[in-house]
From TrEMBL, chains A, B:
<feature type="transmembrane region" description="Helical">
    <location>
        <begin position="242"/>
        <end position="263"/>
    </location>
</feature>
<comment type="similarity">
    <text>Belongs to the anoctamin family.</text>
</comment>
<keyword id="KW-0472">Membrane</keyword>
<keyword id="KW-0812">Transmembrane</keyword>
<dbReference type="InterPro" id="IPR049452">
    <property type="entry name" value="Anoctamin_TM"/>
</dbReference>
<dbReference type="InterPro" id="IPR007632">
    <property type="entry name" value="Anoctamin"/>
</dbReference>
<feature type="transmembrane region" description="Helical">
    <location>
        <begin position="556"/>
        <end position="579"/>
    </location>
</feature>
<feature type="domain" description="Anoctamin transmembrane">
    <location>
        <begin position="211"/>
        <end position="630"/>
    </location>
</feature>
<feature type="transmembrane region" description="Helical">
    <location>
        <begin position="316"/>
        <end position="339"/>
    </location>
</feature>
<dbReference type="GO" id="GO:0005886">
    <property type="term" value="C:plasma membrane"/>
</dbReference>
<dbReference type="GO" id="GO:0005254">
    <property type="term" value="F:chloride channel activity"/>
</dbReference>
<dbReference type="Pfam" id="PF04547">
    <property type="entry name" value="Anoctamin"/>
</dbReference>
<feature type="transmembrane region" description="Helical">
    <location>
        <begin position="595"/>
        <end position="617"/>
    </location>
</feature>
<protein>
    <recommendedName>
        <fullName>Anoctamin</fullName>
    </recommendedName>
</protein>
<feature type="transmembrane region" description="Helical">
    <location>
        <begin position="402"/>
        <end position="423"/>
    </location>
</feature>
<feature type="transmembrane region" description="Helical">
    <location>
        <begin position="505"/>
        <end position="528"/>
    </location>
</feature>
<feature type="transmembrane region" description="Helical">
    <location>
        <begin position="359"/>
        <end position="381"/>
    </location>
</feature>
Length: 652, 652
């Protein structure tokens, strides 16, 4: 009873001393000495090799009847520490003259939003990123192991947090949602009707790394509008003659080249505004799962595990590659079964056409779509296992290998049947029908798996917690106390990065760019899907998942490449579809050879034009190029001045 | 009589005070006050905005009866000045631990070849490059015009040398050949027989910027050996069946992809060893011919002429592009005339075949080859004029536009007829014959125009000078005194950069990669040409031309792109040639359509493999990647330390 009272009296007692930004959870059986040691290292001054952060144990919440993990810690930092951390990281902020510059403490008054002591200058996401960076680079000194845990070996220079994570002593480390900001964000994000889909600036403040994904989602959605506008009359007026489809295919070609080029420019603009375009990446630490023989890193000179590259290459090319190929073969096999089923349903319908056999016609496609989703899911786990086993040193290299594996399989799974129908069976009616079924089924499945299922699970947990809390205290205050809030967030699902979201957009882009000339409504469907995606993603980020750490990126990386590869394939596919259309065939009545040669020639020409366009259109808009050049020029001039000063010193 | 004596007594009087590195020639009617002013600015201390270099007027040479330009100046610098200039430029030199680092005066003792006061640490080419840089960045202060030349306007920050050049007050500025070094170089370059073709390290010391071209030439020559080895038996044993040509074409495909990828790695290794891989380019000044309305550069903030980009684009796309297309059309027209002549000669030979009509068969090809060379020459001048008129701000942009124009036309001119014969006429015998004629004629012409003609002209001048000198002095000393040597060099032709040399290699690469499967001897011919090219180029650089300023480059730039484009075209061409071969046609006896579809599919597959290979093979070899990463890591760590120190200062 007393406990409850004291909690209600000072619900934010902790936050009066410092704003908790990041939570850190250790397993409940962590030794007392390990905790003391860790907290001391976190609090220690930087000159002693500490992180110089503020840390406090979370008080036990309500419901002591349940088994609660007491080892939850809240981490914050003083304003001064955050600002020096920002300088350390080379954070780019807006300068007084509107350009973006690397933040420095000595120059802080000249930054645009810096007022007073600098409170509110850094966004919450930036503060959390700084704290994460400082914790990540907290290195062992002369400890040989974590105190009390002899199995968790340490050596000078080893990142402590990563060792705790890899040995399972640390359960997780996650940034906290900021209730007030979140409320404002959710309102402007998915509760307000507006012209632009998303408040990108505000999203960027909260989810720095994911903001570029949301930027891309919004861009892609708007880019689909012209395609959708052109597609609708085709559907409404039932323009089934291929004559008009040729026009549509040509438009399609131009569209997918142009939007990707413009996206690069738009992305550069966004990244510049957000200060991530020219931020230098710190040297990546080995990822937690990486293992090897202890040695010295040739670059940093630090002691760390080394794993021979040749051995990794061997695993990649001799195990992973054959496995992927085998999976592709398996997927091909499944596809063939689907076509047999399809044929069987068709023959049944032809024999004795009733309403039920008409429904039966759709069954194989639906089964196939579901099977594909299941296969994708299984394959995904296998790919993760294999990529883990390949033992990549860097998280980025792990991600790239994983993305490549999953991408190839998903692409094959989703499009192989369509290619087969289009180019082997040459059945445009079936193609249209398959495309529609695939598109709609996978959309519904995706939305369900992605947002509603996690939401429903989270809601159950949430309600349980609420019920427990309200049972124990008066109804007057609907807010959860911080103790409960943190514990609630600790139980939330972890947001696994933008991988699945990009993959979904990639496949949708494929449906539109490859085949929309036979099913013009595809663009409309994808457009609708994107709009709901904006809302479900927003919802997911704000309500369902733990807040993710921001991961500043200057571009969408390997995905840009994937989308461009898709647009090249689109040129080939569209040319082939045009070449196969009876309308075009009519121009070459006497010889198919002439037709094919012309198609191939035009396709090569289009590809050449595409590459030349890519080369001619600068990836970074002129004004930003000038800003970047200006910054570089100034730093060169500063260097020169420094050299001259040094020269004078050496003369003296 | 007295004058002559004093000259002989102290033939290197100047060089006792300083080693002359660069010569500078003003027009003979330059006003005295302009000369005084210029020399004073060159000699002035850096803190007063001078260049702090040593400069001396060249004494009049022998032969006062002739009109000599008295305004020739020799420029040198103190060792200290050169070293600080090297630091200023960010020159990369080999460090004690074998890595390449930016040179700094404070750290000079830790560089590998730094001994004593540092004499001989910088190569002559580097010293000359430093002096050129210092002269180029000698800027006007508050002068409104060059004293005595009111038409040569100046404004604060304007490069003085560039204004003098653009107003024709300065005739030229060129680095001097160093007799002793040159002798050693010429010996090891083209007088000694050796395994590697060229002493690349020594060439690099002397011709820094051109060294990468010589590196490429050597690499390309060695890369041709496997092609040549495979080509010889084809020629010797008269393997005329297309069966074997298919194998050759496949080999060709692999070869041209692999050598370009490996070259990138080799080039990175060379550039790293020479310290140009990661050297930062200084901000480019506007080129001397650039004109516009005076304004402020948005990047540097300096006053300089501005020219609207839109206007330039208009000139490029509305004048230059149509002009190039028109020229291509004209070239096509000439080609058609050639085919008519060819047909006429053939019919004459068929009617009444004699020895002379047999010779006549070769005449059209030879005429065509000569006409092509002439057309190329005329077009070249037009392209230079047009590119000049487009008014590019930067030399690099001017060069790229010029290269593109010349490249397209040359490519078209050289290969259009071959494509026509191969794919429209489908006459492999004629193709082989044309290829041989084109290859041999253009080689002979090139070698003549490039080396022998200039050499002959230079020899005449040289002899005249020698005769004059020997007439006036005793025979004992065969060396020219420095006064005469400098004047002789001032009269030498100017080396116009590696443009023509690269272009030649590009076209030769085209002959080999596109069509060598129908004329396997092409590789052998090109190999022979390359070997003579090494010698004639070496000879040209050492004996015929003024020494060029070095122009450090980290790669071969736009040429890499051009070669890669060529290798893509080679894939297409070779696939088509294979598809057209009767041997392959025999596999698809019933339908041409099947054959074409397969050919196209395989071609697409090969292109995809090519792009994936390009993507997979890292452009920079692993050891160099590690070195670069190490350097970057160290600079990041240093920055961090500095920030921390600053933080401490600000705390104090």
């Amino acid at each position: 009873k007393k406990k409850k009272g004291s909690l209600i009296d000072t619900p934010f007692r902790l936050s009066e001393r410092f704003t908790p930004l990041v939570a850190l959870e250790l397993v409940s059986d962590t030794k007392e000495e390990a905790i003391t040691w860790l907290l001391q290292r976190i609090r220690d001054k930087q000159r002693n090799g500490g992180a110089e952060l503020l840390v406090e144990q979370l008080r036990p919440g309500l419901g002591v009847q349940e088994k609660q993990n007491p080892n939850l810690f809240l981490i914050g930092a003083s304003l001064q520490r955050l600002l020096s951390g920002a300088e350390d990281l080379g954070l780019f902020k807006e300068f007084n003259d509107g350009s973006m510059r690397g933040f420095t403490c000595t120059n802080k008054q000249n930054f645009k939003d810096f007022q007073g002591d600098g409170d509110g200058f850094l966004s919450v996401a930036e503060c959390q990123y700084i704290i994460k960076h400082e914790l990540d680079t907290l290195r062992a000194k002369d400890e040989s192991h974590v105190p009390g845990h002899t199995q968790a070996k340490l050596y000078p220079g080893k990142s402590i947090i990563r060792r705790l994570l890899s040995k399972g002593i640390m359960v997780q480390m996650f940034p906290l949602h900021q209730k007030e900001e979140l409320k404002r964000l959710t309102f402007s994000w998915y509760k307000k009707v507006k012209l632009s889909l998303q408040p990108l600036g505000k999203i960027q403040c909260n989810y720095e790394g994911q903001a570029l994904y949301f930027g891309f989602l919004e861009y892609f959605t708007f880019a689909l509008i012209p395609m959708a506008l052109i597609g609708v009359p085709y559907y409404l007026f039932d323009w089934d003659d291929y004559d008009k489809y040729v026009i549509f295919a040509v438009f399609n070609l131009i569209w997918c080249t142009v939007i990707l080029e413009l996206w690069k420019r738009f992305s550069a603009t966004l990244a510049y505004r957000w200060g991530t375009l020219s931020r230098k990446k710190a040297f990546e630490e080995p990822r937690p799962g990486f293992h090897g023989v202890l040695g010295f890193n040739p670059v940093t000179g630090r002691e760390e595990p080394l794993y021979p590259n040749a051995k990794r290459q061997l695993r990649v090319y001799c195990v992973s590659l054959p496995f992927v190929l085998l999976c592709l073969y398996g997927s091909l096999y499944v596809m063939m079964i689907y076509f047999q089923m399809e044929g069987w349903a068709l023959s049944l319908h032809d024999e004795d056409p009733t309403f039920w056999t008409g429904v039966l016609l759709f069954i194989p496609s639906i089964i196939y779509a579901v099977v594909i989703e299941v296969l994708n899911l299984i394959y995904r786990y296998a790919a993760e296992f294999l990529t883990e086993w390949e033992n990549h040193r860097l998280e980025s290299s792990y991600q790239n290998h994983l993305i490549l594996k999953v991408l190839v399989f998903n692409f094959f799974n989703c499009f192989a049947s369509l290619f087969y129908i289009a180019f082997v069976m040459q059945d445009m009616v079936l193609l249209r029908q398959s495309l529609a079924t695939l598109l709609i089924t996978s959309q519904i499945l995706n939305q369900f798996m992605e947002a509603f299922l996690p939401y429903w699970l989270q809601r159950r947990r949430n309600k349980k917690m609420m019920r427990r809390v309200t049972k124990m205290r008066t109804q007057e205050d609907k807010e959860l106390p911080i103790e409960e809030q943190v514990r609630l967030e600790a139980d939330m699902s972890t947001y696994l990065g933008t991988f699945d979201d990009y993959l979904e957009l990639f496949l949708l882009f494929g449906y539109v760019s490859l085949f929309s000339c036979v099913y013009p409504l595809a663009a409309v469907l994808v457009l609708l899907n994107n709009i709901t995606e904006v809302y479900s993603d927003a919802f997911k980020m704000c309500r369902v998942f733990k807040r993710p750490f921001s991961d500043p990126a200057s571009n969408i990386g390997v995905w840009q490449l994937a989308f461009e590869a898709m647009s090249v394939i689109a040129v080939v596919t569209n040319c082939a579809l045009i070449g196969m259309s009876p309308q075009v065939k009519a121009y070459f009545p006497e010889s198919d050879m002439q037709l094919i040669l012309w198609t191939v020639a035009i396709e090569h020409g289009l590809l050449a034009v595409k590459f030349i366009l890519t080369f001619l259109i600068p990836d970074v808009p002129k004004p930003i190029q000038i800003q970047l050049a200006k910054l570089e020029f100034e730093s060169l001039e500063a260097l020169k001045k420094k050299v001259n000063t040094w020269g004078m010193f050496s003369v003296i």
